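Section: Multi-chain targets

For targets with more than one molecule, the full set of components is provided together so that the structure can be written out for the assembly as a whole rather than chain by chain. Components appear in the order listed by the source. The example entry contains two components.
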Amino acid sequence: AQKITQTQPGMFVQEKEAVTLDCTYDTSDPSYGLFWYKQPSSGEMIFLIYQGSYDQQNATEGRYSLNFQKARKSANLVISASQLGDSAMYFCAMREYGYNFNKFYFGSGTKLNVKP
Amino acid sequence: DGGITQSPKYLFRKEGQNVTLSCEQNLNHDAMYWYRQDPGQGLRLIYYSQIVNDFQKGDIAEGYSVSREKKESFPLTVTSAQKNPTAFYLCASSMGPGDSSNQPQHFGDGTRLSIL
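Its structure, encoded as tokens over all components, is:
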């Protein structure tokens, strides 16, 4: 079974609007972390935000927030007030702290296009 | 500044040739990784290493080899057995267990490998 599932291969959003990128995960480890990365067309991977499985509040970093629904095993990334520079691939990733701490699982990514 | 350095940025391989991609980190991270990314696709794990002189196969290890003789270095060799090596290769590192549970992987800027 897929550890991380991103069901939106591509999305469009109008500049200055908010957008939600979906991510669901599969694990039986009670302790895990969820990460979101941005990959512009130049290729580098930029870390955006982290959510731990025991965190009581949803993570926020500037215009990025994570809508963490533990019971549904979803960790959706919300980008508020989209900018043209947000156009990129976005990857959700997970790290299980009990089983193999050093292994990260990545989703297939969502390509976001911000329209002017 | 600490980081991960990948070289070269672009690499061309002739038929039947082995080529080696360099990855060096000065973050004092225990774990290092190699990923392959095809155009418009997600990251696929080739090999990872949790400590010096130890490494594990990822999902697509066939046709690749690695070594981890020093903590700072994790070179990847693309052998002639890899029949379709054209891709973008990303090296990453991460901290080990302890107080690093919320720390993401750090990535290099990647190497683009093409067949001549």
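Chain A has a mean pLDDT of 95.
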